[in-house]
Structure of Peptide deformylase:
Amino acid sequence: MTLPIIAYGDPVLRKVAAGIDKDYPNLKALVENMWETMYNANGVGLAAPQIGLPIRLFLVDTTPFADDEDLSKEEQRALNGFKKVFINAEIEQEKGDEWTFNEGCLSIPDIREDVKRKDTITISYLDENFKPHRETYDGLLARVIQHEYDHIQGILFTDKLSPLKRRLLKGRLKNISQGKILVDYRMRFPELKKARG
């Protein structure tokens, strides 16, 4: 089932998400619905807060990046078929040089900006079967994971922009929160919810 994606401005996107255990209700169905929602919106990652749930769950499928001819063959191979569920994730370390990449977000449609992030991360997490993992990623894989991890920390990519850039985007962000935007996937807008309530 495709779920509506929560738009910029909703308080759920600003909460530090809570951990879950293997008894979380209907977890398997939730993960399936999140995959369907992400693919329907042509995303490469989706975090539970983006569908209104303040829990430490996100998923990533970087396969669409594997066709990028600007990337090395090695990086294309790493991205192709990389599909994972991250539960109760904790980034233990971020290291390496900061590098810039143009990021977007399903909760903030039609805005893309250059964001600096460290090159390499070490992350511990549970998979969908609650098996523990501790892995190190670099490059674009690390960046996608960092972006989704930020969501469960209540952080958006726009928070990483300069104060001037954020001021320039203020009007566009307000329009998104009010639903004054055309998107080709289901969204829920906080300002519209308030107006009806």
Summary: The helical segments are 27-40, 73-79, 139-152, 163-177, 190-196. The mean pLDDT is 95. The first helix runs from residue 27 to 40. The longest strand covers residues 83-105.
